[in-house]
Amino acid sequence: MTQPNGKLWSGRFSQKTDVSVEAFTSSIDIDKRLYAFDIEGSVAHCKMLAKTSIISDDDAFQLIEGLGRIKRNIEHNEFEFDDSLEDIHMHIEHALLQDVGKVALKLHTSRSRNDQVALDVRMYLRDAVRFIIERLVAMQKVLVSLAKQHIDVILPGYTHLQRAQPILLAHHLMAYYEMFDRDIERFKDNLKRINVMPLGSAALAGTTYPIDQKYTAELLGFPKITSNSLDAVSDRDFIVEFLAGASLCMTHFSRLSEELVLWSATEFGFIEIDDAFATGSSIMPQKKNPDVPELVRGKTGRVFGDLMGMLTLLKGLPLSYNRDMQEDKELLFNSTDTLNACIEVYTQLLPGIKFNATTMRQAASAGCLDATDMADYLVGKGMAFRDAHHCVGNAVSYALQHKKELYELTLDELHSFSDRIEKDIYNILSLKQMIERRTSYGGTATANVMAAIKVAEEKLAGETKQ
Ligand code: ARG
Protein backbone atom coordinates (compact mmCIF):
# COMPACT_ATOMS: atom_id res chain seq x y z
CA MET A 1 0.00 0.00 0.00
CA THR A 2 2.81 2.42 -0.87
CA GLN A 3 1.45 5.58 -2.44
CA PRO A 4 4.30 8.06 -2.95
CA ASN A 5 2.04 10.89 -4.01
CA GLY A 6 -0.93 9.91 -1.89
CA LYS A 7 -3.06 8.78 -4.85
CA LEU A 8 -4.76 5.44 -5.17
CA TRP A 9 -3.46 5.30 -8.75
CA SER A 10 0.09 6.43 -8.01
CA GLY A 11 1.96 3.17 -8.77
CA ARG A 12 3.47 4.24 -12.09
CA PHE A 13 4.10 7.85 -11.09
CA SER A 14 7.36 9.18 -9.68
CA GLN A 15 6.33 12.81 -9.27
CA LYS A 16 3.52 14.47 -7.36
CA THR A 17 0.64 15.94 -9.32
CA ASP A 18 0.93 19.70 -9.65
CA VAL A 19 -1.50 21.53 -7.35
CA SER A 20 -2.84 23.53 -10.28
CA VAL A 21 -3.60 20.29 -12.11
CA GLU A 22 -5.34 18.90 -9.05
CA ALA A 23 -7.55 21.96 -8.90
CA PHE A 24 -8.18 21.85 -12.65
CA THR A 25 -9.05 18.18 -12.87
CA SER A 26 -11.01 17.93 -9.64
CA SER A 27 -14.75 17.48 -9.99
CA ILE A 28 -15.59 16.90 -6.35
CA ASP A 29 -17.52 20.17 -5.95
CA ILE A 30 -19.92 18.96 -8.63
CA ASP A 31 -20.02 15.18 -8.25
CA LYS A 32 -20.20 14.97 -4.46
CA ARG A 33 -23.96 14.94 -4.82
CA LEU A 34 -23.59 11.44 -6.29
CA TYR A 35 -22.30 10.07 -2.98
CA ALA A 36 -25.41 8.07 -2.01
CA PHE A 37 -25.56 6.38 -5.41
CA ASP A 38 -21.84 5.71 -5.37
CA ILE A 39 -22.13 4.00 -2.00
CA GLU A 40 -25.25 2.05 -2.94
CA GLY A 41 -23.48 0.88 -6.11
CA SER A 42 -20.39 -0.13 -4.14
CA VAL A 43 -22.44 -2.06 -1.59
CA ALA A 44 -24.11 -4.03 -4.36
CA HIS A 45 -20.73 -4.58 -5.99
CA CYS A 46 -19.33 -5.96 -2.68
CA LYS A 47 -22.28 -8.30 -2.27
CA MET A 48 -21.74 -9.59 -5.78
CA LEU A 49 -17.99 -10.06 -5.17
CA ALA A 50 -18.81 -12.12 -2.09
CA LYS A 51 -21.54 -14.12 -3.80
CA THR A 52 -19.13 -15.11 -6.56
CA SER A 53 -16.38 -15.80 -3.99
CA ILE A 54 -14.11 -13.19 -5.56
CA ILE A 55 -13.74 -11.80 -2.03
CA SER A 56 -14.66 -13.46 1.25
CA ASP A 57 -17.94 -12.86 3.08
CA ASP A 58 -15.99 -11.34 5.93
CA ASP A 59 -14.23 -8.86 3.65
CA ALA A 60 -17.54 -7.92 2.09
CA PHE A 61 -19.08 -7.44 5.52
CA GLN A 62 -16.29 -5.08 6.60
CA LEU A 63 -16.47 -3.11 3.36
CA ILE A 64 -20.24 -2.73 3.57
CA GLU A 65 -20.10 -1.64 7.21
CA GLY A 66 -17.38 0.89 6.37
CA LEU A 67 -19.36 2.26 3.44
CA GLY A 68 -22.36 2.71 5.74
CA ARG A 69 -20.25 4.73 8.18
CA ILE A 70 -18.93 6.91 5.38
CA LYS A 71 -22.47 7.59 4.22
CA ARG A 72 -23.46 8.69 7.71
CA ASN A 73 -20.40 10.92 7.95
CA ILE A 74 -21.23 12.65 4.70
CA GLU A 75 -24.83 13.09 5.77
CA HIS A 76 -23.76 14.58 9.12
CA ASN A 77 -21.29 16.92 7.42
CA GLU A 78 -18.41 15.14 9.09
CA PHE A 79 -16.65 14.29 5.87
CA GLU A 80 -13.73 16.26 4.49
CA PHE A 81 -13.64 16.99 0.79
CA ASP A 82 -10.30 17.70 -0.80
CA ASP A 83 -9.32 18.61 -4.38
CA SER A 84 -6.36 16.23 -4.34
CA LEU A 85 -8.78 13.30 -4.28
CA GLU A 86 -10.35 14.30 -7.61
CA ASP A 87 -13.86 12.99 -7.45
CA ILE A 88 -16.50 11.37 -5.25
CA HIS A 89 -15.37 7.84 -6.14
CA MET A 90 -11.80 8.49 -4.96
CA HIS A 91 -13.03 10.27 -1.84
CA ILE A 92 -15.14 7.35 -0.77
CA GLU A 93 -12.51 4.77 -1.57
CA HIS A 94 -9.89 6.78 0.29
CA ALA A 95 -12.16 7.24 3.32
CA LEU A 96 -12.85 3.51 3.28
CA LEU A 97 -9.13 2.80 3.41
CA GLN A 98 -8.84 4.97 6.49
CA ASP A 99 -11.93 3.40 8.04
CA VAL A 100 -11.47 -0.34 7.46
CA GLY A 101 -7.78 -0.51 6.50
CA LYS A 102 -6.23 -2.69 3.80
CA VAL A 103 -9.38 -4.64 2.96
CA ALA A 104 -10.64 -1.43 1.30
CA LEU A 105 -8.15 -2.09 -1.50
CA LYS A 106 -10.36 -5.01 -2.60
CA LEU A 107 -13.43 -2.89 -3.30
CA HIS A 108 -12.27 -1.95 -6.76
CA THR A 109 -11.75 -5.57 -7.89
CA SER A 110 -13.24 -6.05 -11.38
CA ARG A 111 -14.41 -2.44 -11.47
CA SER A 112 -13.13 0.81 -12.93
CA ARG A 113 -14.17 4.36 -12.27
CA ASN A 114 -15.38 4.33 -15.85
CA ASP A 115 -18.19 1.85 -15.26
CA GLN A 116 -18.63 3.18 -11.72
CA VAL A 117 -19.35 6.74 -12.84
CA ALA A 118 -21.64 5.50 -15.61
CA LEU A 119 -23.57 3.58 -12.96
CA ASP A 120 -23.76 6.53 -10.57
CA VAL A 121 -25.06 8.92 -13.22
CA ARG A 122 -27.66 6.41 -14.37
CA MET A 123 -28.84 5.91 -10.79
CA TYR A 124 -28.95 9.66 -10.19
CA LEU A 125 -30.88 10.36 -13.38
CA ARG A 126 -33.27 7.45 -12.84
CA ASP A 127 -34.31 8.98 -9.51
CA ALA A 128 -34.32 12.51 -10.86
CA VAL A 129 -36.55 11.61 -13.82
CA ARG A 130 -38.98 9.68 -11.63
CA PHE A 131 -39.19 12.69 -9.33
CA ILE A 132 -39.68 15.10 -12.25
CA ILE A 133 -42.53 12.95 -13.58
CA GLU A 134 -44.16 12.91 -10.14
CA ARG A 135 -43.89 16.69 -9.77
CA LEU A 136 -45.12 17.29 -13.33
CA VAL A 137 -48.17 15.20 -12.53
CA ALA A 138 -48.84 17.33 -9.44
CA MET A 139 -48.52 20.49 -11.56
CA GLN A 140 -50.83 19.08 -14.23
CA LYS A 141 -53.45 18.39 -11.56
CA VAL A 142 -53.44 22.10 -10.76
CA LEU A 143 -53.84 22.94 -14.45
CA VAL A 144 -56.75 20.53 -14.85
CA SER A 145 -58.50 21.75 -11.73
CA LEU A 146 -58.15 25.36 -12.95
CA ALA A 147 -59.71 24.30 -16.25
CA LYS A 148 -62.62 22.67 -14.42
CA GLN A 149 -63.09 25.63 -12.11
CA HIS A 150 -63.29 28.07 -15.06
CA ILE A 151 -65.22 25.89 -17.47
CA ASP A 152 -67.62 28.70 -18.46
CA VAL A 153 -64.99 31.37 -19.13
CA ILE A 154 -64.62 32.42 -22.77
CA LEU A 155 -61.66 34.28 -24.25
CA PRO A 156 -60.41 34.97 -27.75
CA GLY A 157 -58.18 32.29 -29.23
CA TYR A 158 -55.33 33.80 -31.26
CA THR A 159 -53.32 33.07 -34.35
CA HIS A 160 -50.48 35.47 -35.24
CA LEU A 161 -51.43 37.10 -31.90
CA GLN A 162 -54.53 38.42 -33.67
CA ARG A 163 -57.91 37.56 -32.24
CA ALA A 164 -59.16 34.57 -34.22
CA GLN A 165 -62.08 32.63 -32.73
CA PRO A 166 -63.58 32.39 -29.26
CA ILE A 167 -62.52 29.45 -27.13
CA LEU A 168 -62.99 28.24 -23.60
CA LEU A 169 -60.28 29.22 -21.14
CA ALA A 170 -60.45 25.59 -20.04
CA HIS A 171 -59.58 24.53 -23.60
CA HIS A 172 -56.57 26.84 -23.54
CA LEU A 173 -55.39 25.48 -20.18
CA MET A 174 -55.91 21.91 -21.33
CA ALA A 175 -53.65 22.61 -24.31
CA TYR A 176 -50.84 22.98 -21.76
CA TYR A 177 -51.95 19.79 -20.04
CA GLU A 178 -51.41 18.01 -23.37
CA MET A 179 -47.92 19.47 -23.81
CA PHE A 180 -46.84 18.39 -20.34
CA ASP A 181 -48.45 15.00 -20.90
CA ARG A 182 -46.17 14.49 -23.88
CA ASP A 183 -43.21 15.62 -21.77
CA ILE A 184 -44.05 12.95 -19.22
CA GLU A 185 -44.32 10.32 -21.94
CA ARG A 186 -40.92 11.37 -23.25
CA PHE A 187 -39.35 11.15 -19.78
CA LYS A 188 -40.88 7.71 -19.27
CA ASP A 189 -39.41 6.56 -22.54
CA ASN A 190 -36.05 8.04 -21.56
CA LEU A 191 -36.20 5.97 -18.36
CA LYS A 192 -36.05 2.76 -20.41
CA ARG A 193 -32.61 3.76 -21.69
CA ILE A 194 -31.40 5.20 -18.38
CA ASN A 195 -32.37 2.10 -16.46
CA VAL A 196 -29.59 -0.17 -17.74
CA MET A 197 -26.75 -1.44 -15.53
CA PRO A 198 -23.19 -0.83 -16.83
CA LEU A 199 -21.12 -2.41 -14.02
CA GLY A 200 -18.89 -5.21 -15.21
CA SER A 201 -17.80 -3.23 -18.25
CA ALA A 202 -14.87 -2.21 -16.06
CA ALA A 203 -12.45 0.17 -17.79
CA LEU A 204 -13.67 -0.59 -21.32
CA ALA A 205 -13.25 -4.25 -22.26
CA GLY A 206 -15.05 -6.13 -19.51
CA THR A 207 -13.34 -8.13 -16.77
CA THR A 208 -11.55 -11.44 -16.28
CA TYR A 209 -13.27 -12.14 -12.95
CA PRO A 210 -16.27 -14.49 -12.80
CA ILE A 211 -18.66 -11.69 -11.86
CA ASP A 212 -22.46 -11.95 -11.73
CA GLN A 213 -23.84 -8.83 -13.38
CA LYS A 214 -27.40 -10.08 -13.22
CA TYR A 215 -27.15 -10.24 -9.47
CA THR A 216 -25.74 -6.69 -9.19
CA ALA A 217 -28.48 -5.45 -11.50
CA GLU A 218 -31.12 -7.14 -9.38
CA LEU A 219 -29.73 -5.62 -6.19
CA LEU A 220 -29.81 -2.16 -7.73
CA GLY A 221 -33.21 -2.54 -9.38
CA PHE A 222 -32.03 -2.49 -12.99
CA PRO A 223 -34.13 -4.55 -15.40
CA LYS A 224 -31.33 -4.67 -18.01
CA ILE A 225 -27.56 -4.89 -18.33
CA THR A 226 -25.52 -3.04 -20.97
CA SER A 227 -24.61 -5.34 -23.86
CA ASN A 228 -21.30 -3.83 -24.96
CA SER A 229 -18.62 -2.80 -22.48
CA LEU A 230 -17.09 -0.18 -24.78
CA ASP A 231 -20.46 1.42 -25.40
CA ALA A 232 -21.38 1.18 -21.71
CA VAL A 233 -18.50 3.37 -20.55
CA SER A 234 -18.83 5.86 -23.42
CA ASP A 235 -22.59 6.13 -23.68
CA ARG A 236 -24.13 9.34 -22.45
CA ASP A 237 -27.04 9.27 -24.91
CA PHE A 238 -29.46 8.89 -22.04
CA ILE A 239 -28.28 12.27 -20.72
CA VAL A 240 -28.68 13.89 -24.14
CA GLU A 241 -32.19 12.46 -24.36
CA PHE A 242 -33.00 13.78 -20.93
CA LEU A 243 -31.68 17.24 -21.78
CA ALA A 244 -33.68 17.23 -25.02
CA GLY A 245 -36.82 16.23 -23.11
CA ALA A 246 -36.08 18.84 -20.47
CA SER A 247 -35.53 21.49 -23.18
CA LEU A 248 -38.91 20.75 -24.67
CA CYS A 249 -40.56 20.77 -21.26
CA MET A 250 -38.92 24.13 -20.54
CA THR A 251 -40.16 25.36 -23.92
CA HIS A 252 -43.68 24.58 -22.78
CA PHE A 253 -43.13 26.40 -19.51
CA SER A 254 -41.65 29.28 -21.45
CA ARG A 255 -44.65 29.57 -23.76
CA LEU A 256 -47.00 29.45 -20.79
CA SER A 257 -44.85 32.12 -19.14
CA GLU A 258 -44.99 34.33 -22.20
CA GLU A 259 -48.79 34.12 -22.17
CA LEU A 260 -48.99 34.95 -18.49
CA VAL A 261 -46.72 37.94 -19.01
CA LEU A 262 -48.88 39.15 -21.90
CA TRP A 263 -52.15 38.42 -20.19
CA SER A 264 -51.13 40.31 -17.06
CA ALA A 265 -50.18 43.42 -19.08
CA THR A 266 -52.78 46.21 -18.87
CA GLU A 267 -53.23 45.92 -22.64
CA PHE A 268 -54.73 42.44 -22.16
CA GLY A 269 -55.89 42.59 -18.55
CA PHE A 270 -56.91 38.92 -18.66
CA ILE A 271 -55.24 37.84 -15.43
CA GLU A 272 -53.80 39.06 -12.21
CA ILE A 273 -50.90 37.18 -10.66
CA ASP A 274 -51.11 36.77 -6.91
CA ASP A 275 -49.13 39.42 -4.99
CA ALA A 276 -47.05 36.67 -3.40
CA PHE A 277 -45.75 35.69 -6.86
CA ALA A 278 -45.10 39.14 -8.29
CA THR A 279 -42.69 41.91 -7.39
CA GLY A 280 -42.76 45.69 -7.46
CA SER A 281 -40.46 48.19 -9.07
CA SER A 282 -37.85 50.05 -7.03
CA ILE A 283 -38.71 53.30 -8.78
CA MET A 284 -42.28 53.08 -10.15
CA PRO A 285 -44.74 52.61 -7.29
CA GLN A 286 -47.60 51.53 -9.57
CA LYS A 287 -45.76 48.51 -11.02
CA LYS A 288 -46.54 44.86 -10.34
CA ASN A 289 -44.18 42.74 -12.38
CA PRO A 290 -44.64 39.11 -13.48
CA ASP A 291 -41.06 38.19 -12.49
CA VAL A 292 -41.71 34.50 -11.89
CA PRO A 293 -42.95 33.72 -15.41
CA GLU A 294 -40.24 36.00 -16.81
CA LEU A 295 -37.54 34.09 -14.94
CA VAL A 296 -38.91 30.73 -16.04
CA ARG A 297 -38.84 32.01 -19.63
CA GLY A 298 -35.28 33.19 -19.05
CA LYS A 299 -34.07 29.99 -17.41
CA THR A 300 -35.17 28.02 -20.46
CA GLY A 301 -31.96 29.19 -22.11
CA ARG A 302 -29.84 27.41 -19.51
CA VAL A 303 -31.38 24.05 -20.31
CA PHE A 304 -31.00 24.58 -24.07
CA GLY A 305 -27.38 25.48 -23.33
CA ASP A 306 -26.88 22.27 -21.35
CA LEU A 307 -28.24 20.24 -24.27
CA MET A 308 -25.92 21.98 -26.74
CA GLY A 309 -23.02 21.62 -24.32
CA MET A 310 -23.64 17.90 -23.93
CA LEU A 311 -23.96 17.24 -27.67
CA THR A 312 -20.79 19.21 -28.31
CA LEU A 313 -19.01 17.37 -25.54
CA LEU A 314 -19.71 14.01 -27.13
CA LYS A 315 -19.48 14.65 -30.84
CA GLY A 316 -15.75 14.27 -31.33
CA LEU A 317 -14.94 11.63 -28.73
CA PRO A 318 -13.27 8.40 -29.81
CA LEU A 319 -14.34 5.26 -27.97
CA SER A 320 -14.38 4.67 -25.14
CA TYR A 321 -14.14 6.75 -21.95
CA ASN A 322 -12.50 10.16 -22.22
CA ARG A 323 -12.01 12.60 -19.41
CA ASP A 324 -14.07 15.20 -21.29
CA MET A 325 -17.06 13.21 -20.06
CA GLN A 326 -16.52 14.43 -16.53
CA GLU A 327 -18.05 17.70 -17.76
CA ASP A 328 -21.42 15.98 -18.24
CA LYS A 329 -22.52 16.25 -14.63
CA GLU A 330 -22.47 20.02 -14.29
CA LEU A 331 -24.71 20.30 -17.34
CA LEU A 332 -27.01 17.54 -16.16
CA PHE A 333 -27.38 18.84 -12.60
CA ASN A 334 -27.99 22.36 -13.83
CA SER A 335 -30.87 21.10 -15.94
CA THR A 336 -32.47 18.84 -13.32
CA ASP A 337 -32.25 21.68 -10.79
CA THR A 338 -33.63 24.28 -13.18
CA LEU A 339 -36.48 22.11 -14.38
CA ASN A 340 -37.43 21.08 -10.84
CA ALA A 341 -37.44 24.68 -9.68
CA CYS A 342 -39.69 25.72 -12.56
CA ILE A 343 -42.16 22.88 -12.02
CA GLU A 344 -42.34 23.71 -8.34
CA VAL A 345 -42.82 27.43 -8.74
CA TYR A 346 -45.58 26.91 -11.31
CA THR A 347 -47.37 24.43 -9.05
CA GLN A 348 -47.47 27.17 -6.44
CA LEU A 349 -48.21 30.09 -8.76
CA LEU A 350 -51.03 28.68 -10.89
CA PRO A 351 -53.76 28.30 -8.23
CA GLY A 352 -53.42 31.97 -7.24
CA ILE A 353 -54.01 33.43 -10.70
CA LYS A 354 -57.13 35.58 -10.88
CA PHE A 355 -58.79 35.27 -14.28
CA ASN A 356 -60.77 38.33 -15.35
CA ALA A 357 -63.67 36.56 -17.03
CA THR A 358 -65.45 39.80 -17.99
CA THR A 359 -62.42 41.28 -19.74
CA MET A 360 -61.79 38.01 -21.55
CA ARG A 361 -65.40 37.80 -22.69
CA GLN A 362 -65.38 41.40 -23.90
CA ALA A 363 -62.23 40.72 -25.88
CA ALA A 364 -63.87 37.67 -27.44
CA SER A 365 -66.90 39.80 -28.40
CA ALA A 366 -64.91 42.45 -30.25
CA GLY A 367 -63.10 42.20 -33.59
CA CYS A 368 -65.56 40.12 -35.66
CA LEU A 369 -64.46 36.80 -34.21
CA ASP A 370 -67.74 35.42 -35.50
CA ALA A 371 -66.73 35.86 -39.17
CA THR A 372 -65.90 32.18 -39.67
CA ASP A 373 -69.24 31.19 -38.18
CA MET A 374 -71.07 33.55 -40.53
CA ALA A 375 -69.24 32.00 -43.49
CA ASP A 376 -70.13 28.52 -42.21
CA TYR A 377 -73.75 29.70 -41.92
CA LEU A 378 -73.78 30.74 -45.57
CA VAL A 379 -72.29 27.37 -46.56
CA GLY A 380 -75.21 25.82 -44.67
CA LYS A 381 -77.50 27.91 -46.87
CA GLY A 382 -75.93 26.47 -50.00
CA MET A 383 -73.05 28.86 -50.78
CA ALA A 384 -69.57 27.53 -51.62
CA PHE A 385 -67.07 28.19 -48.80
CA ARG A 386 -64.77 30.48 -50.84
CA ASP A 387 -67.77 32.59 -51.95
CA ALA A 388 -68.99 32.72 -48.38
CA HIS A 389 -65.51 33.77 -47.23
CA HIS A 390 -65.51 36.64 -49.74
CA CYS A 391 -69.03 37.71 -48.85
CA VAL A 392 -68.29 37.79 -45.11
CA GLY A 393 -65.04 39.65 -45.85
CA ASN A 394 -67.15 42.44 -47.34
CA ALA A 395 -69.43 42.42 -44.30
CA VAL A 396 -66.42 42.64 -41.95
CA SER A 397 -65.01 45.57 -43.89
CA TYR A 398 -68.40 47.31 -43.67
CA ALA A 399 -68.73 46.57 -39.94
CA LEU A 400 -65.23 47.90 -39.23
CA GLN A 401 -66.00 51.11 -41.13
CA HIS A 402 -69.16 51.58 -39.09
CA LYS A 403 -67.47 50.60 -35.84
CA LYS A 404 -69.86 47.71 -35.36
CA GLU A 405 -69.58 43.99 -34.80
CA LEU A 406 -71.12 41.54 -37.28
CA TYR A 407 -73.77 40.53 -34.76
CA GLU A 408 -74.67 44.23 -34.36
CA LEU A 409 -75.54 44.67 -38.06
CA THR A 410 -79.27 44.81 -38.84
CA LEU A 411 -80.89 42.17 -41.01
CA ASP A 412 -81.23 44.79 -43.76
CA GLU A 413 -77.54 45.56 -43.59
CA LEU A 414 -76.72 41.85 -43.68
CA HIS A 415 -79.03 41.34 -46.67
CA SER A 416 -76.91 43.74 -48.66
CA PHE A 417 -74.15 41.09 -48.54
CA SER A 418 -76.33 38.07 -49.20
CA ASP A 419 -80.02 37.50 -49.46
CA ARG A 420 -79.52 34.00 -48.03
CA ILE A 421 -79.07 35.52 -44.56
CA GLU A 422 -82.07 35.18 -42.30
CA LYS A 423 -82.98 35.99 -38.73
CA ASP A 424 -81.50 32.74 -37.41
CA ILE A 425 -78.02 34.18 -38.14
CA TYR A 426 -78.08 36.00 -34.77
CA ASN A 427 -78.28 32.73 -32.91
CA ILE A 428 -75.26 31.46 -34.86
CA LEU A 429 -73.26 34.59 -34.07
CA SER A 430 -73.67 34.29 -30.29
CA LEU A 431 -70.50 33.51 -28.32
CA LYS A 432 -72.15 30.54 -26.67
CA GLN A 433 -73.11 28.99 -30.03
CA MET A 434 -69.68 29.63 -31.48
CA ILE A 435 -68.21 27.57 -28.65
CA GLU A 436 -70.83 24.84 -28.45
CA ARG A 437 -70.99 24.11 -32.18
CA ARG A 438 -67.29 23.25 -32.32
CA THR A 439 -67.85 19.63 -31.47
CA SER A 440 -65.18 18.06 -33.66
CA TYR A 441 -62.94 15.76 -31.60
CA GLY A 442 -60.47 18.00 -29.75
CA GLY A 443 -62.62 21.11 -30.38
CA THR A 444 -63.60 23.74 -27.84
CA ALA A 445 -67.28 22.79 -27.23
CA THR A 446 -67.92 22.55 -23.49
CA ALA A 447 -68.89 18.87 -23.68
CA ASN A 448 -65.62 18.06 -25.46
CA VAL A 449 -63.52 20.01 -23.01
CA MET A 450 -65.31 18.39 -20.06
CA ALA A 451 -64.63 14.99 -21.62
CA ALA A 452 -60.94 15.89 -22.08
CA ILE A 453 -60.79 16.98 -18.45
CA LYS A 454 -62.28 13.67 -17.38
CA VAL A 455 -59.75 11.68 -19.42
CA ALA A 456 -56.94 13.77 -17.93
CA GLU A 457 -58.22 13.32 -14.38
CA GLU A 458 -58.36 9.56 -14.83
CA LYS A 459 -54.88 9.45 -16.30
CA LEU A 460 -53.48 11.62 -13.50
CA ALA A 461 -55.14 9.50 -10.82
CA GLY A 462 -53.51 6.44 -12.41
CA GLU A 463 -50.09 8.14 -12.43
CA THR A 464 -50.37 8.89 -8.74
CA LYS A 465 -51.19 5.27 -7.92
CA GLN A 466 -48.12 3.90 -9.79
N1 ARG B 1 -14.66 11.86 -12.37
C1 ARG B 1 -14.65 11.04 -13.51
C2 ARG B 1 -15.83 11.38 -14.42
O1 ARG B 1 -16.77 11.91 -13.97
C3 ARG B 1 -14.74 9.61 -13.14
C4 ARG B 1 -14.15 8.67 -14.11
C5 ARG B 1 -12.70 8.83 -14.14
N2 ARG B 1 -12.08 7.85 -14.93
C6 ARG B 1 -10.83 8.00 -15.32
N3 ARG B 1 -10.37 7.06 -16.05
N4 ARG B 1 -10.12 9.04 -15.00
O2 ARG B 1 -15.82 11.13 -15.58
What does this molecule look like?
The chain has 466 residues and is mainly alpha-helical. It has three domains: 10-109, Fumarase/aspartase (N-terminal domain) (Fumarase C, Chain B, domain 1); 114-198 and 227-360, Fumarase C, Chain A, domain 2, CATH 1.20.200.10; 363-446, Orthogonal Bundle (Ribonucleotide Reductase Protein R1, domain 1), CATH 1.10.40. The chain has 19 helices and six strands. It has helices at 19-25, 28-31, 35-51, 57-75, 88-100, 113-149, 169-194, 213-219, 229-234, 237-264, 291-315, 328-349, 357-365, 371-380, 385-401, 411-415, 425-428, 431-436, 446-465; strands at residues 154-159, 162-168, 196-197, 224-225, 271-272, 354-355. The strands form three sheets. It has a two-stranded antiparallel sheet. Strands 3-4 form a two-stranded parallel sheet. Strands 5-6 form a two-stranded antiparallel sheet. Helix 7 packs antiparallel against helix 10 (237-264). The longest helix has 37 residues, at 113-149. It starts with 18 loop residues before the first helix and ends with a helix.
CATH class of the largest domain: Mainly Alpha
Spatial extent as radius of gyration: 31 Å
CATH H-level superfamily of the largest domain: Fumarase/aspartase (Central domain)
Strand content: under 5%
Low confidence ranges: none
Query: Which series of helices and strands comes N to C?
Result: HHHHHHEEHEHEHHEHHEHHHHHHH
How would you sum up the global shape? elongated
Task: Report the total helices.
Answer: 19
Kindly report the CATH topology of the largest domain.
Answer: Fumarase C, Chain A, domain 2
What separation lies between the terminal Cα atoms?
Answer: 49 Å
The CATH architecture designation of the largest domain is: Up-down Bundle
Helix content: 55-70%
How are the strands of the largest sheet arranged?
1-2
Which molecules are bound in this entry?
arginine
* Average of pLDDT: 95
**Count of strand segments:** 6
Question: What's the story with the biggest beta sheet?
Answer: 2 strands, antiparallel
Question: Class by helix and strand content?
Answer: mainly alpha
**Number of individual domains:** 3
